[in-house]
Write a structure and sequence with these properties.
alpha/beta, globular, D-Maltodextrin-Binding Protein, domain 2, 44% helix, 5-stranded mixed sheet
Length: 325
């Protein structure tokens, strides 16, 4: 009987060990804090994938820049030390210039058009391209359309932008956009509340959820609904890690991440009317209808700049511009 009990205990330990070894931990990096757009996508993915995997997948979300800025998170994903991330499109362009197609100014007229392109063949081509630099592109969630705020004056035309010191992401394209508009673009990692408060920079450009969550209304007086760039996230995995997974697990992760992205886009868009009302209530002066045609004309030549000289990138940009006419 004693020997039998020992055998049972050994078998239970072996079963536990096999079960424990079968658990996959996904370290998922986001630079923003809970409640932010990236976090909503990450948290929804966790909510979906863990029960579907019957506990075999556990997602650990590293938020608030605890793993570094977005470029540093991407480097860790490349190396496979971090498995997944929800990352703003802009920082990807130091890894693969193909993403500049998404961030081309004024390319999408509305959310429906952005979804049509990014959920379709063009979006798939962009996600597939990322495999050449070590990423498995899974889906597009979003920051949303970017708008300008500053502390100097209302912005209605490009002339109002001249000389403004505007914080931009570490992105060659975003820097070029604001140079073309006459501003002084200043690449700077997030967050930037203190820099705005102290006057180190005059303004910033971001979707409305950022204005709300990071309380831009406390340190910015003017906002203009320029909608100059549709800012997506690319929800990615480390290709090194991804290639070690079995097909069933890959399919489960892919499906859950896409569903999380679609969910997050809706949540983000549904909140914009409320956010605008909040900004007005907090005292921001908002220009609802700046002269977008003048802004568009100022940046029209970007497609012929060195940023788009790569033949594949240029060809995909022209294909996208044709598709959104």
């Amino acid at each position: 009987m004693k020997r039998f009990c020992v055998v049972i205990i050994v078998l239970l330990v072996m079963v536990w060990a096999v079960s424990a070894s079968a658990t996959t931990t996904i370290n998922l990096g986001v630079v923003t804090k809970p409640g932010s757009a990236q976090n909503i996508a990450a948290e929804k993915f966790k909510e979906l994938i863990e029960p579907r995997s019957n506990g075999e997948i556990v997602v650990k979300i590293h938020h608030s820049g605890s793993l570094g800025n977005e470029t540093e998170i991407l480097q860790q994903i490349q190396m496979g030390t971090v498995q997944m991330g929800v990352i703003t499109v802009g920082p990807f362009d130091t890894f693969d210039p193909i993403v500049r197609v998404i961030n081309y100014p004024f390319i999408f007229k509305d959310n429906a058009q952005a979804d049509e392109i990014l959920d379709g063949p063009i979006g798939k081509e962009i996600l597939t391209s990322l495999e050449d630099v070590g990423f498995k592109g899974l889906a597009f969630s979003e920051n949303g359309f970017r708008n300008l705020s500053n502390n100097k004056r209302p912005v209605r035309t490009p002339d109002d932008v001249k000389g403004l010191k505007i914080r931009v992401m570490q992105s060659a394209l975003h820097k070029a956009i604001w140079q073309a508009l006459g501003a002084n673009p200043t690449p700077m990692p997030w967050p930037i509340y203190t820099e705005l408060e102290q006057g180190v920079i005059d303004g910033q450009e971001n979707p409305l959820w950022v204005f709300e969550v990071y309380k831009m209304y406390e340190v910015q007086k003017y906002a203009s609904m320029t909608r100059h760039v549709y800012s997506g996230h690319i929800d990615v995995a480390s290709l090194l890690w991804w290639n070690k997974l079995d097909g069933k697990t890959q399919n489960m992760i892919q499906k859950a991440m896409y569903e999380a992205a679609v969910y997050q886009r809706k949540v983000n868009r549904d909140g914009n009317a409320r956010r605008l009302a909040l900004l007005k209530e907090k005292g921001m002066q908002i220009v609802m209808h700046p002269d977008v045609n003048l802004f568009r004309a100022k940046v029209a030549k970007l497609k012929d700049m060195d940023l788009y000289k790569d033949p594949w990138v240029h060809a995909l940009l022209l294909k996208t511009l044709e598709a959104v006419k």
